[in-house]
Amino acid sequence: MSRDAEQKLTAQPDFQGPTDKRKCTDILCTIIIVLAWGLLTILGIYAIKHGDYRVVLYPMDYDGNICGLSNYSNIDMSDYKYLYPVNFYGGGVCVKECPDLSDLPSGDPVDLHTLVTYSGIFQTESSILPQDYIQVANYNSTNTNNSEVCTMMECYPGDNVLLSWKSPGVNEGAGYAFYAVNTRTYMNRCLLTSSVVDFLRNETSSLEDFAKQSNSNLEGTENVMSNLYSDLFTSRSYILGFGLGLSVIVGFIYSY
């Protein structure tokens, strides 16, 4: 190795390198992001002190009570963490556990002689389940609407269980009572299994009406999601063009 190669390179005394030409080009954005961080921090602290994330995650019953909580409800729902559907429109009651009817002696996923109502459990003499099989919160103190209380006339006209589907209480899935059915738990909600829908279609006297009613509700949910994604797909050029492309262009312009 030559002697020149062993010598270390030394810079000239007045050499400053590229750093003397560097400067902050995003002062305004820096101020904005610092302010955003500060405001979000304040918001987070306030939310921790005064808020409760469970209000967002836990389901709400027909009367505005939050299942699983006590300090946000007219009733202490601490022991009733799950929402059981009473109709197809989101109305439900808080229960201790989502019922599992897979082990019924009859093998059916539904007890047509047991109704879960806004006022608790209502049964006929032919019910299969014990009275306390589905433990519903005590709504007697808050449910003052006497028109939403099951009687044989209101929920089992003529003492005919097959006619109950069109009764004022069940009202084809739009009333204040619904059958005790087999469910599965998802995010503290009791969801009807597919076997329940199939069973009700076969057992109720209004098979065609039930099929139309249940299908229309399912199709309504699917249509909402379908319309949402189709709108996003249709407007993808605007979203990418203005949301991504324009922001990149503005960022380059501002940088220079």
List the topology elements.
Blueprint: H1 3-6, H2 27-50, H3 54-57, E1 82-85, E2 92-95, E3 110-117, E4 120-123, H4 152-155, E5 177-181, E6 183-186, E7 189-192, H5 194-203, H6 207-234, H7 236-255
Antiparallel strand pairs: 1-2, 3-4, 3-5, 6-7
Helix pairs in contact: 5-6
In spatial order, strands of the major sheet run 4-3-5
- Largest sheet geometry: 3 strands, antiparallel
What's the number of extended β-strand segments?
7
What is the global morphology?
Answer: elongated
Distance between the termini: 46 Å
User: Which runs of at least 5 residues are low in confidence (pLDDT < 50)?
Assistant: 217-222
Oligomeric state as shown: single chain
Determine the number of helices (DSSP H or I, runs of at least 4 residues).
Answer: 7
Order of helices and strands: HHHEEEEHEEEHHH
Quote the beta fraction.
5-15%
Helix content: 25-40%
Instruction: Return the average pLDDT rounded to an integer.
Output: 78
Radius of gyration: 31 Å
Helices and strands: which structural class?
alpha+beta
Structure, described:
- The chain is of the alpha+beta class.
- The protein has 7 helices and 7 strands; from the N terminus they run αααββββαβββααα.
- A hairpin with a 2-residue loop joins strand 3 and strand 4 (120-123).
- The model is unreliable at 217-222 (pLDDT under 50).
